[in-house]
């Protein structure tokens, strides 16, 4: 089970390094574009929906 999570994370890192590294920091990439589905153990790269900002 741990191996699947490790492989998924390595895939995410590889995608960031090949496509997004020059665009944004890795943590921003995870925060804004990576959505992990725990039930299916998959990930999707897309802009996450942001909730309303409170001041």
Describe this structure in words.
The chain is an alpha+beta fold and 55 residues long. Helix content is 49%, strand content 15%. The chain contains two helices and two strands, in the order ααββ. Strands 1-2 form a two-stranded antiparallel ribbon. Strand 1 (34-37) and strand 2 form a beta hairpin. The longest helix has 19 residues, at 2-20. The protein is flat, with a radius of gyration of 13 Å. The termini are far apart. The model has no long low-confidence stretch (mean pLDDT 78).
Tags for this entry?
alpha+beta, flat
Compile the SSE list and pairings.
Elements: H1 2-20, H2 26-33, E1 34-37, E2 42-45
Antiparallel strand pairs: 1-2
Structure in a nutshell:
The protein is α+β, with helices and mostly antiparallel strands and 55 residues long. The protein has two helices and two strands; from the N terminus they run ααββ.
The number of strands is 2
What is the ordering of alpha helices and beta strands? Answer: HHEE
Widest sheet: strand ordering: 1-2
Shape: flat
Helix proportion = 40-55%
Largest sheet: 2 strands, antiparallel
| Total number of helices | 2
Q: Label the structural class.
A: alpha+beta
How far apart, in Å, are the first and last alpha carbons?
A: 41 Å
Indicate the low-confidence ranges by residue numbers: none
Question: Radius of gyration over alpha carbons?
Answer: 13 Å
Mean pLDDT: 78
Q: What percent strand?
A: 5-15%
């Amino acid at each position: 089970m741990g191996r699947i999570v490790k492989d998924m994370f390595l895939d995410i890192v590889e995608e960031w390094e090949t496509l997004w590294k020059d665009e944004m920091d890795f943590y921003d990439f995870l925060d804004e574009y990576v959505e992990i589905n725990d039930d299916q153990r998959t990930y999707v790269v897309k802009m996450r929906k942001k909730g309303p900002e409170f001041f």
